Protein 1
Amino acid sequence: MAVDIRTFDTFPKLLAHHAQVRGALPAIREKDLGVWQTWTWGRLNDEVRALACGLAAHGLKRGAHLAIVGDNRPRLYAAMCAAQCLGAVPVPLYQDAVATEMAFPIQNADIGFAMAEDQEQVDKLLEVLPTCPSLKRIYFDDPRGLRHYAQPELSSYEQLQEVGREFDAKNPGFFDAEVARGLGADTAAMFFTSGTTGNPKGVVLTHTALVDRAHAAALMEGLGDSDVVLAYLPPAWIGQNIFSYAQPFVTGYCICCPESAETVMADMREIGPTYYFAPPRVLEALLTTVSIRMEDAGSLKRKMYGYFMDVARRVGAKILDGEQVAAGDRLLYRLGDVFVYGPLRNVLGMSRVRVAYTAGEAIGPDLFVFYRSIGINLKQLYGSTETSVFVCIQPNGQVKPDTVGPAVPGVELKFTPQRELLIRSPGLFKEYYKNPQATADAKDAEGWFHTGDAGYFDPDGHLKIIDRVKDVGALTDGTLFAPKYIENKLKFFPYIREAVAFGHAKDKVCVFINFDMEAVGNWAERHNLPYTGYVDLASRDEVCDLVASCIEKVNLDLSQDPELANSQIHRFLILHKELDADDGELTRTRKVRRGYIGERYLPLVEALYAGRDSVHIEVQVRYEDGRTGNVSADLKIRDVKTFPAAAAKRAA
Amino acid sequence: MRKHIGLIVLGLFLLAGLAAPLVTGASQPGFYIEVLLGGLMAGVLYSLVALGFALIFKASGVFNFAQGAMVLFAALAVARLAERMPLWIAILISIVIMIALAWVIERLVLRPLVNQEGVALLMATLGVSYFLDGFGQTVWGSDIYKIELGIPKEPVMILDQVFQGGILVNKEDFVAAIAAAALVGTLALFFQKTATGRALRAVADDHQAAQSIGIPLNRIWVIVWSVAGIVALVAGVIWGSKLGVQFSLSQVALKALPVVILGGFTSVAGAIVGGLIIGVGEKMAEVFLGPVLVKAFDLAGGGIENWFAYVLALLFLLVRPQGLFGEKHIDRV
Amino acid sequence: MSGGRKIGEVILAVENVSLAFGGVKALSGVSFDVREHEVRAIIGPNGAGKSSMLNVINGVYHPQQGTIRLRGREFHDMDPHEVALAGIARTFQNLALFKGMSVLDNIMTGRNLRMRTNLLLQALRIGPAAREEMVHREAVERIIDFLEIQAWRKTPVGRLPYGLQKRVDLGRALAMEPSVLLLDEPMAGMNVEEKQDMCRFILDVNDHFGTTIVLIEHDMSVVMDISDRVVVLDYGKKIGDGTPAEVRGNQAVIDAYLGVSH
């Protein structure tokens, strides 16, 4: 793999390099008309050349922006590279954004050119055209349905290439000279991140940043040109772009574009990727499909699955980490591999996966361990758009469910007194586009990027992210209080749907619980517990015991962590109603609005801390049809067992 | 699981019966395997006849009573033609004859009776059956004829190192089994991979829809009956070379009936598996169950082969009325 | 939408067709024509004779009186197979797909008509037969792509939800590359979203392949949106014929059909 990234410091130069040394190896595959169609590196190079010349002929200038709007398609990736060849900047936009959401980035970045996937995306661009005077040309990949479009801005990918080939013939040295002019310090791409508030910000990344990070991670995992990746997440997301553009351009591996969103699972089985990324929600959904299939299977199969999954849970992850395991268990695991894990990996399309990553949000330990226990080398990583992704990666054999691993070579990490994580890395972004204020806020004079994330190193030097800095507080004894961290730990239990933790400026931690109606309802049926509804269940001692047992496990877990041992949960109550976005208790993306809930249910919070056994509540609720009504209930308050802090680890 | 309980119990019961002679030490392993192989060989032939039934039933909904007569007719044709010419030419000509026969049957019997009650068609095939029996003898004669495949009939001893006394097998039987397997494989490929095969499956799935998209039913019927004729020919040649070509050959149809009941009327897989089960079952019953019955009830003990297949089919019918493979919608014809 | 589509000459002419079952008159003296590349709807209340009309064109029923001409050539007692050969394909209101066969195989059966090589070559899969199979497979893959059913290529049709089965039915008819496509209540039993999808596919087919489309449909709103011209039947008689706007304004139609709330 050893590509010299100092010589080949831009993506176009890397492409030229691959076209030369592995011109006949596959670069991009796409399933079309039921067959995997392959572009070799040589072919990709030819496509890019024709496109770049066409774009130059149409007036795309160095530093100008080209929007890329669509799913993972070979031609869109080719367009990305074509822009970079001319020193222009590709700006991938989310293909599922509605038209109005597309207007801002186009206006903000003065985008003049756009490469769209199909009619759907063209329609959206045409819709915003009146508000985006900068947009002059729109190219499209798939002509279906566009035959009768007469807009002067439109032309097809083929037409663009034709112009390009003509231009190339007239100016033979042009393309190579343009590529040679490119420098690592030039802007390679711009990604818009959707801030929770305000307009999205355009994150400007240089070739050097992206190439360096892609290279560092590839070196760490030993990626080479025989690796295969399935590109199935939005290309406008930095993660997908790293895995399906930056890293293949550094290592020469092949990416595969699925036929459609519905065929991803089947396509994955067909190509058998060796390198895989999935956010926790995707892993969760996959596990759910497997579980549903097992429920439908015959009883023999179900029993076998249950038995061997127990074996896997016990020893699978240890075997993957190369730890000592009893010979009998090892044999059982082998047997399970033949009958259960192997077929399961095959169904998931992960038979050949060597390295799999997950990131983006906290992953439940059960979910994480499930994949590792069946022999899939799933690891966590930490990074963001601003850092060209790779900041921390769990190295093989040192994988823990609750950390994201040590820093990737080249990255420096440190913490502010408020425990905010600061990063300095060759992969850091150049700036937020046309937003010097935001840039200055995020990146200080010494080049440290302020992540806004709070965390610390565990005794092994692995980074542990616990919460956003602004949400982290402290108990009265000074102990760190990370409400979201605690709430997430609770929510990993299927019985618990929502949790709200209180503790900032208090002497102990207490929580509100919303249990999961479906899971607890099933549980109640299995235990012959008749009930009428949520409120009824909430008042049952059995349900309180169930919730208490979950909280105890979280406490045990917290007690192992020297930093958080004192923030174990002392008391809890089960809320009388489910938290609802309509009542303003959750955001639309289902995030708990802790402050509002604390005010709204102040009497409950006070009761928790006053040490009472129960509390009466009367609140107004808004029904779905808009009417309002009153609900009143007596809520039980329970104490939970806490554990002494694990002394052994404290020393570290 | 629960709905299969009857089938599972029956299966375990049969397996137990199958294992009994070995477990109780009533038989030497070598001899036991000989009997088993003999049963499988017979089963292959039952399967072939049942296959003809299943094909026609699935594609046209006709229960073809004449399948046995077709076996006899084809075997007679091959035997008599082979007296005058090399065997392979005789077989080729016989194939052409069977295709012509299929065409005639479609023209004269099926087409006029289209959309009639199933019983009318059944009676018609009964008529075809008698016609073929008689007509065959008129054309080809009514003696017992021989088909010489040119394969040595002497049994060979194998595995005499492993078992005391070794195992006696008939080389001809092996060739026959391989030929039958090749035929079944070819048919499966034909149905799965060719346009005509696809059309056949389409017709089997839904006649009317097939017709409305331009699949000509009449042509499909000719093809299906031709295929059934060729299958009958293979069965006839194999059987004829073993036992000689004679009138009793048409009675094998009666053996195929329990096979299709057991396997499910519309299933090729059912015909094959059913044939093997019946073949093995009745051989085992004859060799091992017969003496037991003689001892226990002081019976004469003969003729088990004649009724055992029906009892087996009846048992399956009780626990699974649709036949072993009848319930699922089978993708193949 | 239909900017580039040119409506051409009369391709299908129904002249004075009458059909009776025993004493019951299903159609009496119905005449209308269908022009090349247009979307032509036949509407009417239940029992108006819409399905009978389609079945007459399709060759399932032979009318006692009247003629049907395709490009000027008169049909004479053609059976459905011959009608299909002449270039008229149809879909079914009560799906008539091959439930046990895969989506791919179902659509491939639509190509059977166009297969030319003989049985022996097919059986051996050699020479022209192998090449032909490839060509047809590609045509079918284009249809699968067009109808966005890639994910279900190998799935037995019987296991698909209803809306998708309807799409497969359309795909099988398209595979015949018909010049006229008869759609029998393509939107029946669908929810709003499925109806919208189906409308889009019908218009796309019309636009993309230039296929002339005759559809019968119960759902008025759908018909009015996508048709160029509409025939209205009531009790087996034609009571209206014209553009959707004209039909809406026709008093006889309003009385017979629009006036009745559905």
Protein 2
Amino acid sequence: MSVDTDRTRTTATAAAAPLPVAPEESAAPVPLLEVEGLRVSFAGKEVVKGISFTAHAGRCLAIVGESGSGKSVTARTLVGLTGPGAEVEADRLELGPHDLTTLGERQWRRIRGKQVGFVLQDALVSLDQLRKVGHEVAEPLAVHGIGDRRSRAARAIELLRAVGVPEPEVRAAQRPYELSGGLRQRALIASAIALDPPLVIADEPTTALDVTVGAQVLDLLAASKARGTSIILISHDLAVVARLADDVAVMQGGVLVEHGPVEQILRAPQHPYTQALLDAVPSEHTRGTRLVRPADGEEKPARTRRPVDRGRPLIEARHLVKAFRGPDGKDREVVRDVSFEVFGGETLGIVGESGSGKTTTARIALALTAPTSGEVLLRGEPWSGLSPRQRRPERSRIGVVYQDPLSSFDPRWSVARILADALSRGPNPPGNGREARARSRALLEQVGLGAEHLNAAPLRLSGGQRQRVAIARALAPEPDLIVCDEPVSALDVSVQAQVLDLLTDLQDELGVTYLFISHDLGVIHHMCDRILVMKDGEVVESGTADEVFERPRHPYTRQLLTALPRLEVAR
Amino acid sequence: MTTLAPALRVPAARLTGLRARPGTVLALGFVVLVVVAAVAPGVLTDRSPTAIDFGNALAAPSWSHPFGTDEVGRDLLTRVIHGSRLSLGIGLGATALAMSIAIVLGFTAALAGGIIDTAITRVLEVAFAFPALLLALLLIAIFGPSATTQVFAVGIGSAPGYARMVRGQVLNVRQAGYVEAAAALGHGRWTVLRRHLFPNAMRPLVAVVTLGVGQSIVWASSLAFLGLGIAPPNPEWGALLDAGRLYITTSWWLEILPGLVIVLFAISVTTLGRTLQRRLEGASR
């Protein structure tokens, strides 16, 4: 056995390594993890280009960056899971007494779980679907040969309780797919801290979770940190970072462009990339302005809104109810008595967590699903009540932008064909192919894409470009209303900022009306004039954005707002 | 829900197709050869497949008769070349018939849903369980042995398998975002079916169909070998096997060489089908 044998036999909860004591504010503490000149390359392409950082007991270091920055590769390297074909080099890579550069797979297995815990973004793929949650949680104990079957089962339940899983005895006997996303993520954290490792690496631990659940997960990690665990948090979300981190390292293109205490990075960022990242975060502060600072400008330009027509609502939903028959034969109402109106030129936001019924409401507005009762009126005329045949010619009056644009494009179609098809549905369809191409080019220009993308397949475009094409398609038939269903949720924060700016610019230019669905309160506050807060199929609160966000009346709204990680920066 | 990260979609390894694999080139070459033989047998041989030469009966393969001759002195290679038209025709015809039945049943089941879906699925399951050879025998017993009967026997026999695949594909593609997006743009049901559902559901099946042609030829040959194919003296690969059966102990070439051609053709078509499948899968992600 390894040198750790004597300690493993004491108790399962004992910290396994000779830990440096939690740092006193004054003395320079001994770092737990020291990384110097870490380089990782895949097939000759360097993705991590010589980065250095340290992690200390009882502190959280956040590595912040966008997709492709190399942050996740860094995280995986620290647990010896860089992946096949990876070349890892480092001047120094030490975890306590262990030199991580020299470890073979066998030795890594002794380190993982005991010295380093690892929490991944997607708990559904990280947990074995066929094994009981209790076994998965106790896995590190089993791997390290601690306790017997019975004591491990008891410890698993204890751990699940410690991470706030209700009814841990029941949950331990279930399989991962029977648990909600939040519970799965907690089970994963329970497994990561099962041996109380001195270092926990959390790669986007809250990204797949609803705000309130994400907040609980962050609290859990914070509690772990308070007990002396060192945490390395990998995240693209600066607000999450602000809530947990003590130190922040900003990563871009495989290098750390800025590194320092969290207050300094968030309040007085030095590097332009960090500044741009912070600027890009939508919130109440960014309302009414663009998110992307112009290259030369000091200030972000304010929007020039067109007046909202408060006469007759453009679209009006009256007492919508949608029920689905469950597997038990009982009807389950996913939308309950939802009413709203959207006026021409404004943005109505629907915010809620998963399962709140917001997407179903959007689908009813689009008449892609019929309400069980209630009705939708378009310009005062029946809409949901029309027969499919009557509705078809009118459909072009409502456009839609989905969260995942790629799946909303026929994989065989080029951008030109997608746009020509959408144009043909408008009130004045192009007469010939040449006109269609010319107008498609104009549409692309309107959404900030060059004509060279006309013949591209959407598959070859980046996520932001795809969403621009999706917006161009929605605009093509000159709709009165565009339903945006989580349009920026799959995008990096800087790309999200560009797309949100595009949406607001289009509204200022063309007077488009948006029904904007999102789970992200910051995005909603930035974008919307009026807001509906949905929970369990019901509208629990509605009002102007400022009313709802500043004087929330419903306890659920308050809970959401408390849970929301914020960038409390005086900027 | 998590969506597939763009990094997981494999755009490379697509056009590595034909040139890189010598096996694929050989397979393509052989298939082209057979197609030429079927379309214009005169290009490959100037002999007649029915020219009898009793003085040269059951001659072993030689330079003048590379495949040898049969019991009445007909050149076997010429007969194989001239037989490819019928064999290929039966293979293509049977696959086309199978696919047509499969498309009708698969699309109807998937789009109608409910009782119709259940009914069609049950019928397909029963047909699946029914031995294909028995079905073929039944048809031949009713209509008599002929190329047309072979096409129907093989075609109907392999239809249920394809129908299940088609149904699955349609159910899958119907969920796709672009189908909903097209509906949201106000396209009618038939337009969506024609422009999106049909091509996208059928695309992965193109490769399966190619594989099916090879299988059908093997199938039809087995029927012919059992004496259930077309009547002599028409050359057809399976019929050649049947005719050579009597002399198998003395004149091996009558069985081995036509059999080899059938096997090579089936392997070639399968190789091409697999290549096609890989490329289509790469492109459809």
